[in-house]
Every structure is written in C-alpha cells, then in structure tokens.
Request: fold
Amino acid sequence: MSEETLNGAAAPQAATFTVEKIYIKDVSFEAPNAPQVFNEQGQPELQLNLNQKVQRLNDNAFEVVLGVTLTCNLNGKTAYLAEVEQAGVFAMAGFEDAGIDAMLGTQCPNVLYPYAAQTISALIQSGGFPPFFMQPINFDALYAENLRQRAAQANAGGDLAGAETAGNA
Reply:
C-alpha cells in the first residue's frame, strides 16, 4: 500500500533509531604512585564521574560521546585514574525534538556504556590492579533528573530576569 491514506494525507513516518558506528574517541590510564601503591593496604575509595557530549552531524545523525572517569584512591594517594570517551554515531528519523532529546539522553548512553565499562575494566587490569566491574547505570533516571534540573533552572531564570547567572551552571 502507498504512503498515502485514502483521504490523500501522507501517513506518519515510523520513527527509526540505528547505531551507525561505535568507537573509542579518547582513552587514558595513569598509575602515578606505582609501584609503591601495590604494597599499600587499606580500603580503596572509588569515584566515578560521567559526562556526555552530543554533536549533530546532519539532519538525522548525531555523535554522542559518553565520558567515564574512574579514580581510585588508597590511603590518600591516587592508585589509578582511568578515563574513556566512548563514542557512537546514531541515526534518528521520525522523532519530535523531545523524542530526539530523550533518545540522546537515554538510549545512546545505554548503548555506549557497556563498551566504556569493558574498556575501563581492561585498563585497570592491564595496569596491574584487581578486576573492577562497573555496575549498571539507570540512564533513564539520570535523564529524568536532568530534565527536572533544566525545568528548575528555566523557572529560576524567569524569576531572576536581568540578574547575572554566570557560574551557576
């Protein structure tokens, strides 16, 4: 059947989402206190930081870069620092702007995260440290919190008309 309905109007296009490419954009591993740190005893303190960058490549394609930084401190010294920028090119068509925003904030990082976690794990083991397994992350909840923060900032911005807001980001 054609894309036109009986009344002559075009049928709505089905939304599509495809993964075009997945790749490592940047990777770094540092063990600044090796080899002495291998003899240290104590409970390691881990800090995980995530960030995401999005670049529109054309009307339907986006590059999404998920940045993961894992820092391990032991007795006040840095045991290791592992950083990965896991990237992907994603094609999307047939989505409203809010749908594209949601896909970029939830589905794209969900696709990239396992690759980043595997790279981080391999770096840590190659650095001579015990295996580290990154736990799953709920990107839907992170996106919902981000939306809430954006709405709060928009509301606060309306209340502070004319006030300078530099440095509040």
User: Anything to note?
Assistant: Residues 1-5, 160-169 have pLDDT under 50 and may be disordered. The domain at 16-37+45-131 is CATH 3.10.420.10 (Bacterial Protein-export protein SecB). Residues 42 and 74 are 7 Å apart (CA to CA). The beta strands are 16-30, 45-56, 61-74, 77-93.
